[in-house]
Amino acid sequence: MKRTYGALLGACATIAFASVAAAETITIATVNNGDMIRMQGLTEDFTAKTGHDVEWVTLEENVLRQRVTTDISTKGGAFDIMTIGMYETPIWGKNGWLVPLNDLSAEYDAADILPAMSGGLSYDGTLYAAPFYGESSMIMYRKDLMEKAGLEMPEAPTWTFIREAAAAMTDRANDVNGICLRGKAGWGEGGAFITAMSNSFGARWFDMDWNAQFDTKPWKDTLEFFVGMMNESGPAGYATNGFNENLSLFQQGKCGMWIDATVAASFVTNPNDSTVADKVGFALAPDNGLGKRSNWLWAWALAIPAGSQKEAAAKQFIEWATSKDYIELVASKEGWANVPPGARTSLYENPNYMEVPFAKMTLDSILTADPNNSTVEESPYVGVQFAAIPEFAGIATEVSQEFSAVYAGQQTIDEALAKAQALTNDAMEAAGYK
């Protein structure tokens, strides 16, 4: 494998990296997820090939979003590359805030990017961010605890089954929670989870006239089910748990099930980090028989803010970090289970990768998420766990704070939904939607 990687790099490194002669230091803002941490550990490979150095600004997810949004909207110029996602990319591309990535090298093979990912990271047919990894969400569960409970996980379970299984697997005396889910405030943290879940209950953020829909039965059903299940079978303090907190709980053997990003599969099955690595099974995110599953679609991607003085070096880094060769590099050092998933078609045509136990379920989950048709009733927005309008991040952050207050026992579901309805409609009216 190492020899293959070296041969590939030897063949194309001169072509791909010869265009920039002067060494630069580029500053990259990224999220503190495992795949990004691994990338930082491998950047000496990039420096050796190009002469460019990299300075990292690594931030928790909510903080990253705030920092990069502020920087790009004020033309702050703090970063040469930003880690952003499917929500920001088309909006910022439309605004002219990002450098188009329409001139990447032939060796990079942009056509190999999964259509679900390139479509979500483009505006008007132009790619504005390259996916480092792509994800949907799925169920990760303890096969041993499921068996002990006398149950068998279906490949495509219902929410009713998940709640029953969570209760059956909960063992408070031994600090085992039947289910761990995001409750943390933030539009991309707990907000993303509850929105994706609400799709399967028949809820939507807006009707076709951009009226908020939090005063409808499907939203109340969603929150009542979520809060009831988490109070029965979830960990204490779940109102402040996001991706990283639940990952830690699962790896410590404290969760029977965890529904979250497909990218987590490599972490929970890594014996160096997970005490339950050999006991994990996978299934599609749950549904309610209404035709929509509760899985989302996302990519963490690398983009260059317009006005960067180091655009050429930044493009070289993006080509390096999101390339087929980078996947080979990670595989050669850490095994195929740990390569960045969900971004390239060729990865899912690679027999080495398809032997990884979660590879097929990840791809199936990505392919079943449709951002153009995510709700049971018709909605006016694109997006699965978000609405792709500029106002959404601010509105959804406030809504998620109201929901987290419910999870923490600080207000009722009815109070939170009434506040969500009012603040959403006020913001949409102020923005001129109504």
From TrEMBL:
<dbReference type="Pfam" id="PF01547">
    <property type="entry name" value="SBP_bac_1"/>
</dbReference>
<protein>
    <submittedName>
        <fullName>Sugar ABC transporter substrate-binding protein</fullName>
    </submittedName>
</protein>
<dbReference type="GO" id="GO:0042597">
    <property type="term" value="C:periplasmic space"/>
</dbReference>
<comment type="similarity">
    <text>Belongs to the bacterial solute-binding protein 1 family.</text>
</comment>
<dbReference type="InterPro" id="IPR050490">
    <property type="entry name" value="Bact_solute-bd_prot1"/>
</dbReference>
<feature type="signal peptide">
    <location>
        <begin position="1"/>
        <end position="18"/>
    </location>
</feature>
<dbReference type="InterPro" id="IPR006059">
    <property type="entry name" value="SBP"/>
</dbReference>
<keyword id="KW-0732">Signal</keyword>
